[in-house]
Amino acid sequence: MAADLILVGGVVRTADRSRPTADAVAFADGKVLAVGTADEVLAHRGEATEVRDLAGAAVYPGFVDVHNHHAVAGVTDLYELSFSVALGLDELLDVVRAYADTLPPDAWITGGSWASTLMDELNSSAVRARLDEAAGGRPVMLSDDSHHNKWVNSRALELAGISADSIPAEGVTLLDAGEPSGVLLEAAGVVVARVHAEAGGLTADQHRRASHRGVEFLSGYGVTAFQDAAVSQEILAALQSLDEAGELNAWVVSSLTINDEIFGFEPVGQPLVDLGGRFRSTHHRPDFVKIFLDGVPPARTALFLDPYLPDDIHGAHYHGTTTMDADELYGWLRMVAERGLGAKVHCTGDGTAHLLLDVVERLRGEGFTETAFQIAHGQFLSDDDIARLPRLNVSADISPFLWFPGVIAQALTDVLGADRVAHLQPNRSIIDAGGLVAGGSDWPVSESPNPFEGMQGLVTRADPLRRAPGVLGADQAITAAEAHEVFSINAARAMGLGDVTGSLEVGKSADFVILDRDFVTGPADEIIDTRVLETWFAGRRVFAA
Known about the structure:
The chain is of the alpha/beta class. About 35% of the residues lie in helices and about 20% in strands. The protein is built from 19 helices and 24 strands. The strands form four sheets. Strands 8-15-16-17-18-19-20-21 form an eight-stranded parallel sheet. The chain has a six-stranded mixed sheet with strand order 3-2-7-22-23-24, with helices on one face. The protein has a six-stranded mixed sheet with strand order 9-10-11-12-14-13, with helices on both faces. Helix 2 packs across helix 8, helix 11 crosses helix 12 (about 350-365) and helix 17 (about 450-460) packs across helix 18 (about 480-485). The protein is globular. It starts with a strand and ends with a strand.
């Protein structure tokens, strides 16, 4: 068979352990046709074959992101206020004020992300009044760096019916002298999010544009497959529409939201699961569900085996909590297994992860041996539970963008202590135990979906953005080759795409990137400097620098 395209003159890194590198690669009809020496691959040259000399550039499989929120990121970029987590309160208010001046008098101001280390400072009626002034009376709802918690102003509280006499049963509403301060934790923020959605929300075309924009960003970073970690019916429809129009430039696995603790999606749970299959298309697979089993440690809404550091509200022996008990979780996961779906379960505390693994162990014992389970974030795990991951075939969906030295690591230290945070993200231990570590950006919780950022952090355990000093848990560093697998074949396997993408093997989709260097063999602290020259998906070039 003649090739459409042959690439020679550079290293080809395959993510296939049976042949990690090659000298050349050929593609035909949107698939990998041949991988090998230049002579072997050039044997597939035909009259119409394009043969390109890479002149020392490198070819890698397209990167795979096991955990992001591409549509949320697209919405933020196109329709919301976006600002850096590095901003202090005064700077944040200045940004809100300038943005408000561009809006009609009654328009909502939504976006993010403010640093979770600001939470105590924002938990004040006086600070809420400053937000009121900056917004010019417009309702405001801003997410923190975890996207689990919201900061809202007086007008937003009023529209949502939240007051000292009417505190939402969902989540946690922080109070200042008996009045809602404006800081809403977890599902308390959903109350305001739903009011915002009812005030107008986005049209179907805007949802489609947001998804397209999110995928466009990802293509620029060489990502050709990803799992959206929590979707709505509108996001499902947008992805299907893009794919049917030939405009979806990535494999997408969608996670159907079971319990919405942060977004305000409707419907969720069983009704959304029942609808999911209608939106399947060639490159879009609604094959997982998403369960939020806990919140985030800085808000003390995650469950830990050992208690949090003492504080005035929770005392000295507070371990946190989960959104479900074992029986409720079992009921959902049993339904998922019976339907042939997989489950991504948000677990940021080691106590939450332990609960999940207990339930998975029960299901495995009942014969559900093939159901795909992912621990989303997997940032704190006990030694015993690390050993259970491979035995129970549970993937660790890790978010290295969120744990290297910086704002989030400091917020974790404030509530857990430095000793525990030093054992964050035990990736070396998981790999050595035989577990599958899959890389996710959690963008836009992270500032970008750049896989080189995540891979450098995995290898150096330092801030790849070179903003914060220090190293976090150096003993848990992995090699550059392992980091590449984490963001390619491992992630593809974790989300059920290992047979079609994630490596350059004959018969797989022609998803690849051309890079300016072979970063696996270069300096670990320069991985992030790698440039994507071209991104190809299913044999089509979808990005060129």
